[in-house]
């Protein structure tokens, strides 16, 4: 029984290189985080060896006594972490990730070619909410269902609920999807509920990005208004890569969501659950009920606000003018540059973020903005003053892209590189060793 370094030095080396990259860089991708050592231990455990198709107590394989105990505990913790009453809400913790979770919901409540409405991808929505272009049905969701996206009001950067209402009245969707990958504000759930009710649609929230914030009650609570809530588990929630689907226990629009969703997960779209992930998720959901987690999520939001404020002081245009959550979306077009260039330059300085389309963009290949998130560096102990420094570093990178003559190595970025590699830079051994 060899260690990884003995059994496969090549993979061991690659993992170490990635660990070093994560250690050295400023991780600002809004959908990423650093999970705890305890979660990683569960994910790297013997739970990965076990097949357990079905649900606790109803498995298609023997030997599942402890796996049943694990999955039931994970379900209980999931409901507790979001303050849900087990008589009213149920949860499936088996989805392999966020996109499969969403497709499982569609499979459960829709027939092929039924109509859906989600936020358009170039306006901050996710692929799995039905993305298509004029030329191509890109996401499987738009291949199997008829998708009519709603969009932002480009003058405010906020969801255009009037347009959603008008379109829904004409299009008559069976499902309306709230939630986004790049939207710095809360959704107006009461308004969306009203619109869904007026056309007889299910209302689903994909809270993937903000599930940690929802759990800590630092943003609005989608469970008060939605029929179904999906999430990934590895973003602000800080768990292993995975997904969950929460559903109301009472029938909605004549559909028993519990059986429909459980059957869509298995045998509909998945086989055996990833029990090592469910183990890691259970650990993360225990963390999520601690006072420290609430403090952490509050810091995620206050750090993001500090970042937004500093960027505004430096003259940047932020989509919607600021942020209520864990991310900001910067519109670089007024400066005459784009997200692709800035992402590349910042990458050279170990500042990791992503280019992102902003409302009004013509090209998805060269989007006009960048998305910056606070969860990961908040996990590493950064506070508001460090996020102000991050804004200054990003500004420096933008200046470099604007001034092609200035060389990267000759700038303040050298000082920055010294900072991130110095011993005073917050260590990650808790998470990565
Ligand atoms: N939903 C939203 C809102 C997301 O932002 C993402 C991923 O970024 C997903 C779903 C999909 O998650 P996964 O990449 O785990 O399939």
TrEMBL record:
Whether Transferase counts among this entry's keywords is yes
The reactions it catalyses are:
(6R)-5,10-methylene-5,6,7,8-tetrahydrofolate + glycine + H2O = (6S)-5,6,7,8-tetrahydrofolate + L-serine
- Gene Ontology molecular function, alphabetical: glycine hydroxymethyltransferase activity
The cofactor required is: pyridoxal 5'-phosphate
> What GO biological process terms does the UniProt entry carry, in alphabetical order?
one-carbon metabolic process
Please tell me whether the keyword Lipid metabolism is annotated for this protein.
Answer: no
Keywords in alphabetical order: One-carbon metabolism, Pyridoxal phosphate, Transferase
- The superkingdom of the source organism is Eukaryota
Entry EC number(s): 2.1.2.1
Which stretches make up the Serine hydroxymethyltransferase-like domain?
Answer: 4-394
Question: What pathway is it annotated to?
Answer: One-carbon metabolism; tetrahydrofolate interconversion
Instruction: Please give the family membership noted in the entry.
Output: Belongs to the SHMT family.
Quote the function comment for this protein: Interconversion of serine and glycine. Catalyzes the interconversion of serine and glycine.
- Name listed for the protein in its UniProt record: Serine hydroxymethyltransferase
Which species is this UniProt entry from?
Penstemon smallii
Q: What is the lineage of its organism?
A: Eukaryota, Viridiplantae, Streptophyta, Embryophyta, Tracheophyta
């Amino acid at each position: 029984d060899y260690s990884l370094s003995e059994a496969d030095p090549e993979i061991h080396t690659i993992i170490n290189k990635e660990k070093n990259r994560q250690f050295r860089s400023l991780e600002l991708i809004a959908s990423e985080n650093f999970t705890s050592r305890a979660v990683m231990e569960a994910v790297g455990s013997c739970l990965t060896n076990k097949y357990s198709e079905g649900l606790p107590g109803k498995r298609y394989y023997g030997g599942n006594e402890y796996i049943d105990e694990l999955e039931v505990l994970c379900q209980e913790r999931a409901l507790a972490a979001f303050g849900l009453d087990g008589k009213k809400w149920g949860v499936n913790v088996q989805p392999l990730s966020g996109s499969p979770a969403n497709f499982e919901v569609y499979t459960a409540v829709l027939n092929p070619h039924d109509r859906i409405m989600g936020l358009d991808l170039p306006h901050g929505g996710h692929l799995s909410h039905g993305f298509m272009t004029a030329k191509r049905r890109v996401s499987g969701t738009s291949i199997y269902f008829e998708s009519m996206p709603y969009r932002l009001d480009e003058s405010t950067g906020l969801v255009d609920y009037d347009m959603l209402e008008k379109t829904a009245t004409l299009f008559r969707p069976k499902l309306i999807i709230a939630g986004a990958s790049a939207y710095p504000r809360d959704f107006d759930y009461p308004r969306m509920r009203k619109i869904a009710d007026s056309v007889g649609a299910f209302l689903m929230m994909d809270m993937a990005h903000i599930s940690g914030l929802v759990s800590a009650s630092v943003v609005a609570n989608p469970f008060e208004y939605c029929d179904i809530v999906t999430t990934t588990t590895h973003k602000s929630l800080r768990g292993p890569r995975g997904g969950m689907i929460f559903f109301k226990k009472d029938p909605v629009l004549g559909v028993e969501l519990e059986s429909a969703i459980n059957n869509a997960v298995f045998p509909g779209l998945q086989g055996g659950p990833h029990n090592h992930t469910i183990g890691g998720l259970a650990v993360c959901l225990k963390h999520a009920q601690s006072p420290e987690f609430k403090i952490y999520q509050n810091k995620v939001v206050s750090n993001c606000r500090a970042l937004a404020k500093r960027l505004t002081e430096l003259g940047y245009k932020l989509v919607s003018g600021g942020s209520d959550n864990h991310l900001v979306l910067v519109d670089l077009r007024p400066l005459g540059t784009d997200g692709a260039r800035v992402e590349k330059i910042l990458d050279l300085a170990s500042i990791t973020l992503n280019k992102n389309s902003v409302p009004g963009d013509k090209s998805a290949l060269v989007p006009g903005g960048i998305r910056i998130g606070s969860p990961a560096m908040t996990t590493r102990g950064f506070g508001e003053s460090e996020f102000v420094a991050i804004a200054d570093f990003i500004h420096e990178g933008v200046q470099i892209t604007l001034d092609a003559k200035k060389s990267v190595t000759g700038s303040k970025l050298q000082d920055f590189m010294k900072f991130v590699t110095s011993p005073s830079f917050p260590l990650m051994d808790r998470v990565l060793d």
